[in-house]
Amino acid sequence: MNIHTKRLLLAPLGPQYLMSTHKYSSDLENTKYMMFLPNTDIEETKNFLEMAHVEWQKPNPAFYEFAILLDSQHIGAISIYINEGNTEGELGWIIGKEYWGNGYVLEAAKEIINFAKNELNIKKFIAHCDSENVASYRVMEKLGMKLESKTKGRRNKASEEEREELSYVLELA
């Protein structure tokens, strides 16, 4: 399943993207605000991509991981995880730092929301980020998401420091 946007192609993320995924998912600057990254070795990245590939093969996946492609080059990933009741989806994204500031994540996220709304009948979307990840929460705000809560206790993989997490919500009619 591929989704086309004005500038991007969103395609199922899988093992064919091992090296490009590992490049952005192991970079400390790129993953500074991430809870489950950076990946410390390529096996960790490989295992994640295998899991994503297996999920794509299921009739009703619990999550969808898409590669973000710009002119056939893999630059990042965007996902939606579906809750057990199939009523809400949790959005997440990462993009290589050399592509920051170009609106690619916003463009991809709009299409993922459309896909989830139209194909999966999702009416509520949630997303979380580190309170210092300004670029990420600005994407959430541009998507029409509203800040629902600020909570302490977030721990990002690259740091033992306790952080504040922002939670955003978008409810569709």
Automatic annotation (TrEMBL):
Checking Gene3D superfamilies in the record gives:
3.40.630.30
InterPro entries documented for this protein: Acyl_CoA_acyltransferase, GNAT_dom, N-acetyltransferase
Q: Does the keyword Transferase apply?
A: yes
Q: Give the keywords, sorted.
A: Transferase
Task: Supply the Pfam families for this chain.
Answer: Acetyltransf_3
* Origin superkingdom: Bacteria
Question: What's a single GO MF annotation on this record?
Answer: acyltransferase activity, transferring groups other than amino-acyl groups
Residue stretches making up the N-acetyltransferase domain: 34-173
Residue ranges annotated as coiled coil are none
Name used for this protein in its record: N-acetyltransferase
